[in-house]
Every structure is written in structure tokens, then in C-alpha cells.
Amino acid sequence: MPPGLQVVHADDALLVFDKPAGLLAVPGRGEDKQDCLAARAQAAFPDALVVHRLDMATSGLIVMARGPAAQRALNLGFEKRQVHKQYVAVVQGLLAPPETDDGWGLIDLPLILDWLNRPRSIVDHEQGRPSRTRWRVLAHDAAAGTTRVLLEPVTGRSHQLRVHLQALGHPIVGDPLYAPAQETGSTSRLLLHAQRLALFHPATGMPMVFDSAPPF
């Protein structure tokens, strides 16, 4: 098994990995950006195919398919929003819980790539694509001035969770793109982790749930 490849699940059709923060999900441009989760996975499982991505700075669960048929089935599951993802983040400031009966809030802000400041994305009410994130407060750390939140993306736009929390006025701790520079020095990484992945198995159709405890 290649070093740094954390296998959560492996069978003839489905692979689930726990990606560390700082590792690309897929190759980038240039020779120095070829080491990535996909390359490590394909070294161990030559038929592994990419289905979705996580930001380089984000840690946690990511799924790959074994072979084109499994890839098509998983892609269809994502398109139909049958794959459910849950993240944990630590954000700047003491974020008040939403005033709802179930404790869940909804951020509904359209996003678009900020072409002049790529790879950043921004809220754009005229040209942005619909983007929705469910969120709830888990805990406050008054001493640190931070809040731990649970996040469920309804849509899957680039940097969606990071931009939506910034738009609330509570950027994720350690975010070099969306948090004020003076507020990123308390940690060496982005405090965002994909902790749960629920999906239907691409071959059997059975529901499956995978969990990964946040490393922060």
C-alpha cells in the first residue's frame, strides 16, 4: 500500500479513503503537483477512477470507483443527490445557533468563480449558481473565540462551505483564502473535515455509511 493512503473501505466496486489535509485529490498542473490521492489510490488499485473531489486543504472521506460501470453508478448518485456528505468545521467567532425548531439553518447564496482572484469563489446574486448549505452549531469555545459547526452541503459548488461561512461573517479557522490573514495563524491547517459519507453501493445498491472522526 502506498505511504499516506488511508483505506476506509475497499471491495470490487467501491473505494473509500480518508484524505489528509494538504494532499491534492487529483493531479494539478506541473511536475510538483502530481502526487495526489488519485495517484496513490491507482498505485494500489489500478482500476480506481475519480468520482468527486475534496479541496487540498480539507481532510476526510472521499470515494472512488473501481471501473467505469461503478463510476457511472456513483456519478449518477451524486447527480441525483443520493450521496449525503457531512462536514465538521471550526469557525472564527461565537456563531449564534439558528432560530429554528430543529436547530438547523440554511445558507442559500449563489456562487460563482472569482475570475480575477482564482481559485476563490464569491457570492453573486445575478450570475452565481444556486448553492445551499445546511448548518448547525455543535459547541462554542469562548476562550478561543471559535464555534464548532456541523455542515451538510445540499449542492456541491467549489469552495461552497468556505465561502458560505465567510458570508455569515464566520470564516473557517485556518483558511488562507477566505479568513483574514491575522486570523489564520492559530493553526497550520484549514479546520474543515469530511466526517460522514452516506451512499448506495454502486454494484449492490445497498445503503452504506462511512465515518471519520475529525483530527481537530
Describe this structure in words.
The two termini are 26 Å apart. It is built from 3 helices and 12 strands. A hairpin with a 4-residue loop joins strand 9 (132-141) and strand 10. It is mainly beta. The longest helix has 12 residues, at 68-79. Strands 1, 2, 3, 4, 5, 6, 9, 10, 11 and 12 form a 10-stranded mixed beta sheet that branches. A two-stranded antiparallel sheet has the order 7-8.
Fill in the keyword field for this structure.
216 residues, mainly beta, 10-stranded mixed sheet, two-stranded antiparallel ribbon, 3 helices, 12 strands, globular
Enumerate the spans where pLDDT stays under 50 for 5 or more consecutive residues: none
Report the total helices: 3
Coarse structural class: mainly beta
Percent of residues in helical segments? 10-25%
Quaternary class: single chain
Radius of gyration: 17 Å
User: What's the number of extended β-strand segments?
Assistant: 12
Mean pLDDT: 94
Largest pleated sheet: 10 strands, mixed
**Bulk shape:** globular
Separation of the first and last Cα atoms: 26 Å
Q: Helix and strand string, N-terminal first?
A: EEHEEHEEEEEEHEE
